[in-house]
What we know:
alpha+beta; five-stranded antiparallel sheet; four-stranded antiparallel sheet
Amino acid sequence: MRMRIEPLPGREDEITCALVFAPVTQTPTAPLLLIQRPDAQDGVLGRRGWAVASNGLRPRLVERRGDELWAMFGSELSWHVQRGTPIAVRERDGELAGRAIWPAIARGRQPPMPASEEEDAPPPPARPAPPPPVTAPLPVAPPVAPPVAPPVASPPTPILPPEQARTGGGARWLLVLLPLLLIGAGGGYWWMNRAEAPAPAPPPAPSPAPVAAPTPPADPCLDLATILTACPRERLATLPPEVQSRLAEGLLGMEGRPALGLGLSLLITAANRHGPAQMALARLYDPAHFRPGGAVGAENPARALDLYRDAAAANIAGAAEARAALVARMRQEAAGEGAAADRARTVLRQAGIE
Length: 354
């Protein structure tokens, strides 16, 4: 199946371009098209822009013209694709498929950021809430039993012999017993007052040690250690472009294809609105800075020229100089002969540079 890209300027419904497939055997009413860039890993265009995973785009209008099928789009497609970028298109559940180079097409107005992707996957399971803080129990002082007063012993009653009772010796015994009675009464009074005295207050209980508040969990979408395993991909598209650019820089400095692919996807998304991200992405495609085995699969001087131009328009330092240096290299290559010279001439012509 063949595919070409047609610009559609001046339409009242703001349709800017059409993907034309031929020949077709049937006419799908609302095909879901997955639009990818073969020169970038895991880059699929969706309603939120380029992302690692996306549900694709549905055309605004589908028309059958002879054996051709015209799938028409607006700025949701043309805004995100630079001139000279190769794209590959396939229908998710159908026969439409093809490849082409993106021509010079007006980008249109910047599309608003939708609330969510069309036909989103179910949200990830909610993470359990952290357990409540554990508070140490207060120490309880042991009960203090009140003191028990010993019983007061009554002095023994002396038994007089019969002869002393008869002879009047009781007076002498009273003189002996009177001091004993006074001593006994004084001792009983002392024991009674001692028993009624208040018990000493127990020592104050020690204050419990303070319990440190639990540390709130870190955001897995802002931590490079967890962004690949615990961050929902849908949330990455809602981050501010400067945060996306910072995370992309960290991921592109890591090893492994998952980190490089996610870093490139974040950088492409940020480059739609962020001048520093445009500059960083241009350097990835610039042949002078291209690194084999890196985030992008091949150098792309045409894409680098467009990104340098956008970064220079955003007053990013060094963007205009980098674009001028790349133009000089392309002109030097175009002055020669062979496939490299033909490619350089094509790049300069597409960029509108004589």
